[in-house]
Amino acid sequence: MTAKVDISFTLNGHLKKVSVPIDMSALTMLRDMLGMTGTKLACGEGECGACTILVDGVSLNSCLMYAAECDGRTVLTIEGLRTAAGLDPMQKAFVEKGAIQCGYCMPGMIMQAKYLADTKGKMTHEELQRGLEGNVCRCTGYKKVFDAVAAVVGVTE
Amino acid sequence: MSQVPKESAPLEGYAAPSTVEEALRLIADGDATILAGGTDLMLQTKPGGRLPYRRKLVNIRRISELRGVSEKDGRMSIGALTTITDIDNNDLLNTVTPVLPQTANCFASSQIRNAGTVGGNICNASPAGDMIVPLLVLDAEVELSAWTNGAVTTRLVSLDKFFTGPGRTIKQPNELLTRIVFARPDKKLFAGYIKSGPRPALEISTVSAALSAIRDNGKLSRVRIALGAVGPTVLRAVKAEAYLEGKTVTAQVAAEAARLAAEDASPIDDVRATAWYRRHLIQVYIKRLLENDSQG
Ligand SMILES: Cc1cc2nc3c(=O)[nH]c(=O)nc-3n(C[C@H](O)[C@H](O)[C@H](O)COP(=O)(O)OP(=O)(O)OC[C@H]3O[C@@H](n4cnc5c(N)ncnc54)[C@H](O)[C@@H]3O)c2cc1C
Ligand code: FES
Ligand code: FES
Predict the structure, then answer these.
(1) Closest ligand 1 atom, CA of A46?
(2) A63, part of any domain
(3) Is B178 found in the same domain as B74?
(4) ipTM more than 0.95?
(5) pLDDT tens digits, B274-283
(6) CA of A51 to the centre of ligand 2 (A)
């Protein structure tokens, strides 16, 4: 059996202590050990972005991240975006612009949009497209997704 | 009958050292798998993957001294843990060698660039490794460090001599790639990189090419050409380099250099392209890289 390692980290504002197999991904830990199923598994290979989370404010594919690497870090998942004040402005914009269809890609899409908004702020349309390139959506055709992000950060031509 | 997947022996230990020395002591027995960003490692070590784990996993991501870009006495140094995003956003590199940020910018997706490191890209030794191609034309060297006889020892190896095959390098299991170093390029040096694919990101290069040279009064010198995804390792197009030395670029010269570069390569047919198409792309790219220069 693969040995385990004890880690502790902040997940959506709460301290978590877990013992994880060394080779487990952060995605598997979140979904199967911690019951946080908002973050989705689709390709499992870094191609689709459904598993995107923010680690110390930086977006990563949690299917490629080792759970052990979460030790000491601050992790934010889609569940942590909503606060006592309600939905995050990015979530609200996605709802208002009708950017969500089946919704499977959305936790990752919204976390990546949040990362772009936090780190870049106002963007050109091309920067926005490039920024969301690692998030695949089979439903929306992206147009309304771009509209939603633009409503939050402002997008220039 | 399904094939029995090649299973790793179970991992027995994990460590996340915060200094180079600590890491080198941990891997001194040569029985550790090194983890940087994990964007190659996680997939390759899956059951049935090509890479079995060694006895322990040593996560080097916490070694802050190995992240970042610096310059000293005309030598540029890039720490192995510098991420692709760091390179994309680095002001010093943007001034000194814009070809590196340009390459980083068409590397995978934002999420992969945030996790993936330049040291991981080199050690993974893919013939399509994007950062390797422009680093080769900058005459980069890699610093390999080890813990031997109770002290940290380092050796510098030309990147040109580092790769021995797909996924294979001369690095020993007790060695860590710590830095990438190269001379600060001459002001007259130009360098460019082109990568194929309908969209740059999430696209393993079908062909990639980098070219650098010094141009003085129209004449080229110190010409370097590197090609990705057209052989078992990223390779130098030495015949084309030698031909271009001392030449002034004309349409004819560019065409001959392109033809020679295609000869230097040894592409194969695979799912992404045929060898014939790859040779064709090499020629298009070499001409384009030479022409772009002739305008600048
Ligand atoms: C969806 C997707 C898209 C991708 N797109 C691209 C692309 O466009 N271009 C491209 O070139 N690559 C691409 N890659 C491959 C990968 O992201 C890069 O090669 C990345 O730079 C690897 O860095 P890492 O830090 O994640 O390496 P890791 O996965 O941590 O390590 C890779 C290998 O190198 C070893 N290693 C890492 N660092 C060191 C060190 N300092 N010393 C010794 N050994 C070390 C590890 O043991 C491992 O064998 C892609 C991968 C995915 C999943
Ligand atoms: S599930 Fe992680 S990128 Fe697709
Ligand atoms: S809304 Fe269905 S995949 Fe994006």
Answers:
(1) 1
(2) yes
(3) yes
(4) yes
(5) 899 999 999 9
(6) 5
